[in-house]
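Two records follow; treat each independently.
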Amino acid sequence: MPVGFRILPRTRAVAPALVERFRKLPVANVSDSMSRIFAAGPRLRPMHAGAVMAGPAFTVRCRPGDNLMVHKAIDMAEAGDVIVVDAGGDLTNAIIGELMLAQMVRRKLGGIVINGAIRDSGALAKQDFPVYAAGITHRGPYKDGPGEINVAIGFEGLVIEPGDMILGDEDGFVSIPYADAETVCVATEAKHAAEGKQMAEIEAGTIDRSWVDATLRKLGCEGV
């Protein structure tokens, strides 16, 4: 099977019950629970109307400006899957547009992330179907290949493997490694609950802010 032009089966995926637990959590809290060092960069932004994206990764690597393997991934992916596409970060040609989005909606996929560009942005912006991309262009794609499906991909310092947990909201998206998903979910649930308590204390005017001056004194700040 030639490297660079192949379709592999996905052998694992985060469980649906775990996906639903993550769906209730903010991406920022997940990021904090992963030591704030796992991110896909600020270029990949939500292009849709705001629905949360949550599901197992279905990965695609394609030649910049070519979406043949993305079409195949749409046909292969299961309901709830999030297609994650490494298109090299190139913004010259769009990887998806309104017609492909309609096909993903019909197949009940969980969303799409593209390290590349989209088009028909006005139509996509009106839809709840989650779309994250690095940019917009009117120029359409080619359909010649090559490309790979269900391989490890990476962009902006983030490595994503098939079946990893993908979560996205207004702040962007994050990938949680399959083996760490349960641990990260538990930690994030605890953090989210703690922040809920803090918010209640802020609203009641009872929150303890003494840590600010204590930190400044510890760091040797004058005038505290």
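The next record belongs to a different protein.
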Amino acid sequence: MKVVPLPSEGLRIGRPLPFSVRDGSGAVLLARGSTIETSKQLELLKSRAIFIDMAEMESVQRAYNGQLDQMLRQDVALGRIASARPDYDSLPMPGAAKAVERPLDWPNLQMRLRMLLVNPNGADWIARLRTLRDDILALVERSPDRALMRLMYDASNEFQDYSANHSLFVCVLASMACTQLPGWQAGWAEPLTLASLTMNLAFTQTQDDLARQAGPLSEMQKGALRDHPERAAALLAEIGVDDPMWLHAVRHHHTAPSGPMAGRSPEETIARLIRRADRYAARLSPRKSRPASSPTAAAQVALLDEGGHTDEAGQALIRTLGLYPPGVWVKLQCGEIAMVVRRTAIAKAPVVVSLVGRTGMPLAVPALRNTRLPDFAVTGAVAPAQVKVRPNLDLLEKA
């Protein structure tokens, strides 16, 4: 797919989009028919590079050419014609049957969450959050390994929109690992996933700023970091959330105590799992001040509690993900560097695709490797900063 830059003047508040807004790779951020509802959401989109599909841009160009032709027939001054801009309001609107397309892919879900978190207002805010959560879980259920590959790779390579992407990643991790916990009940998944998505609700912009900050935290930033769980819970209650398990998990996602999981209340169980998934995901993510950790280092953080003892919630997480989850880089016995694309029943032998040869040069053609064979056995994880190849994830998903 070919995309071209979309001028921000093509975006309007309160009007369904007549085209899809995309990122530089062509992935949908906001689908055709979606509506930008507030100035905050508009500012968020204007703060980043946005694109439009070439075919949809041709529709814009045709409308623009018709606009110029009409101005010429009306003998409009040439100066005004020269300064004219495309009239995006004249583009045909989506039909009622296709009012809001919902392409279930991660860039779209990440952007939708970001727009919800920066503007937690409106009578339907909770309903929109639940719809988004349902879309997230549907995409995970469709292909768990694909979900992990996309989110693991994104977490270890990007810190734009860090706060929303991190919360979405934690939601996916917790939803996948929760059934491994002793005594887990299906009804707890609802507050678990919603709390994961909203745990940093009052901290979104500050958390994004901290990810891009090279220096130490100021005293004000330390205070915001310390207080944000309580402020997030208070804001959720103000919006209308009355689920005590959801609110408790948000309030205690940094303070849920360590120790055996048996006998804990449901809300304490949820908070503890979120805390471990939060720490694991954070270690995989780079900051301006430090590179991302390797998956084995992140796994160690998840497996050991604050006192250095084995943590049951962390065990559930790593048992679900494996030592080398999809989306991470690994070194093979032969010297190649590969990306993990799928988990297997053997934690140390995932399905991988080699992208860097033993000489350190990128392979001309990615090669699927059987890690059960001695020459292709995984010898360890590789930190993302050590790999200079940018993988084609769409291609790797087909391996």
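Discussion point: The chain has 15 helices and nine strands. How would you locate this feature using only the token line?
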